[in-house]
Amino acid sequence: MRVKPFLDTNILIYAFAADDPRSERAEALLAAGGVISVQVLNEFVNVSRRRLRRGWDEIEKAVRVLRTLLEPPVPVTIDLHEAAVTQARNHGFAFYDALIIAAAVQSGCKVIYTEDMHDGQTIGDLKVLNPFR
Predict the structure, then answer these.
(1) In what order do the strands lie in the sheet with 122-123?
(2) How far apart are the C-alpha atoms of 100 and 12, rounded to whole Å?
(3) Which element (helix H / strand E) includes 42?
(4) Pick from 81, 3, 2: which is nearest to 37 by CA?
(5) 68-106: per-residue pLDDT in tens?
(6) 6-129: which CATH architecture?
(7) How far, in whole angstroms, is CA 9 from its chain's centroid?
(8) Which tens digit of pLDDT belongs to each residue from 5-27?
(9) Start-to-end C-alpha separation, the chain
(10) Count of CB atoms within 10 A of residue 72's CB?
(11) How far apart are CA 32 and CA 1, in angstroms?
């Protein structure tokens, strides 16, 4: 079985954005499947509601689509929290980025697609790639 990539929140946002040049690439990444965490779902809902001003029905429909296309979300647990604290302390990541990294590592992902971290950076066996570059 092929290990799927971890998708950061911005990938999900662009996949559901209107008239964004990154949407097509983000939609292709979603269609190929991947892994997200509950944190990513929470951020998606928050950004969709506050910045994109989407209604609750539209947001809930989008979340159902995400849950259909992607692996079950990685839960935010105390073990994940502790791993994120270690990532943040040892590598200087912002805590919420470290939580994303810890979820990707815990899931066995080898790639994380995001535009919020340094493209090409490696963290152990995990490689950060910006799919919009």
Answers:
(1) 6-7, 111-113, 126-129, 122-123
(2) 14
(3) helix 38-50
(4) 81
(5) 999 999 999 999 999 999 999 999 999 999 999 999 999
(6) 3-Layer(aba) Sandwich (3.40)
(7) 4
(8) 999 999 999 999 888 999 999 99
(9) 28
(10) 9
(11) 14
Beta strands in 1-133 (DSSP E): 6-7, 111-113, 122-123, 126-129
What is the model's pLDDT at position 31?
A: 94
**What are the structure tokens assigned to 1, written together?**
């079985």
Instruction: Compute the distance between CA of residue 79 and CA of residue 7 in angstroms, rounded to an integer.
Output: 20
Residue environment code for 98-133, b if the CB has 16+ CB neighbours within 10 A, otherwise e: bbbbbbbbbbebbbbbbbebeeeeebeebebbbbee
Residue 28: alpha-carbon gap to chain centroid: 15
C-alpha 68 chain-centroid distance: 15
CA distances from 61 to 1, 96, 102, 129, 133 (A): 29, 25, 28, 28, 29
